Amino acid sequence: MKEANQVHKPSSIDGVQEMLGAQGYVCGRALGTVTYLALTLGRPLFLEGEAGTGKTEIAKALSLALGRRLIRLQCYEGLDAATAVYEWNFAEQMIAIRTAEAAGGVDRTHLKNELFTEEFLIERPLLQAMRPQPGGAPVLLIDEIDRTDEPFEAFLLEALSDYQVTIPELGTIRAPEPPIVILTSNRTREVHDALKRRCLYHWVDYPDFTREIEILRARAPEASETLSREVVAFVQRLRTEDLFKKPGVAETIDWAKCLLALDVISLSPEVIADTLGAVLKYQDDIARLQGSEAKRLLDEARATLDPA
């Protein structure tokens, strides 16, 4: 039975955009459409794009908006199925064995059966996502799937096909209601087509000037219009440079908040030089903007702004 406080999924694309907007996530029409379809059809949503473009944030926004638990599986090289699903609490099992031995008369078969029960099970993200949750099925974020390898992809494909996982000692555990699944990839490598075909796909690109201004207004409303426009124009201009790592939307927001903390009302080459660590994360990129380069980019950024 569903919880009384469960928030209903939106019934239109506009409803998705409004719902996410209420959580400070500015969602374009295309992303709103694919998100609506994923929610309506119960299909996993595969979001691919550069780091910092807001792929992870949409899962957080959906979780908050729908009143669902957010379960995050952070992927990394070497992640295997067992680690993503469950582990046995070996420390507690050893205590149980020693306690039973101290009591005497140990029935080894009975003890073995008792050791591999729910009591000693440590649930990891994929298993947690298959369990009933307050407020309805959770939002399962499988973050940076491109960091894993093909065997894990194959396992994940099977798990998401039937929304179930198998624990040899306990059997198969199936989700009573499929979780809302969002997979993200920074495209450090190609993810197998079989997994992509299971999902609805969307490429999350850097926003244009207008949308990035909207995002900054939502996430850093204290920033003045002048400062916001200068920050966004400068970052957009920065992305056209040959950098090792171009700044994402997350860096735009962080930089604006840093400037606000310093009571900056307008950009200057000196302010840019002092705060570049908020927007660029590699020393080679920072070194490129020393001296007259920061002034050149700032002048070019300002030239793109409307007189208003």
Structure description:
The protein has 15 helices and nine strands. With 308 residues, the chain is of the alpha/beta class. It has three domains: 13-80 and 123-204, P-loop containing nucleotide triphosphate hydrolases (Rossmann fold, 3-Layer(aba) Sandwich); 86-119, no CATH class; 209-303. A five-stranded parallel β-sheet has the order 2-5-8-1-9. The protein has a two-stranded antiparallel sheet with strand order 3-4. Helix 1 crosses helix 2 (29-41). 34% of the residues are buried. The model has no long low-confidence stretch (mean pLDDT 91).
Give the SSE map:
Elements (H helix, E strand, L loop, with lengths): L12 H9 L7 H13 L3 E5 L5 H12 L3 E5 L6 H5 E3 L1 H14 L4 H8 L5 E3 L1 H6 L8 E5 L6 H13 L1 E4 L3 E4 L5 E6 L7 H5 L2 E5 L4 H11 L5 H14 L10 H13 L7 H7 L7 H6 L3 H12 L5
Helix pairs in contact: 1-2, 10-11, 10-12, 11-15
The gist of it:
With 308 residues, the chain is an alpha/beta fold. Helix content is 48%, strand content 13%.
The CATH homologous superfamily of the largest domain is called P-loop containing nucleotide triphosphate hydrolases
Q: Low-confidence spans: pLDDT under 50, at least 5 residues?
A: none
The general outline is elongated
* SSE ordering: HHEHEHEHHEHEHEEEHEHHHHHH
Q: Major sheet: size, sense and barrel closure?
A: 5 strands, parallel
Index terms:
3 domains; two-stranded antiparallel sheet; Rossmann fold; five-stranded parallel beta sheet; 308 residues; single chain; 15 helices; alpha/beta
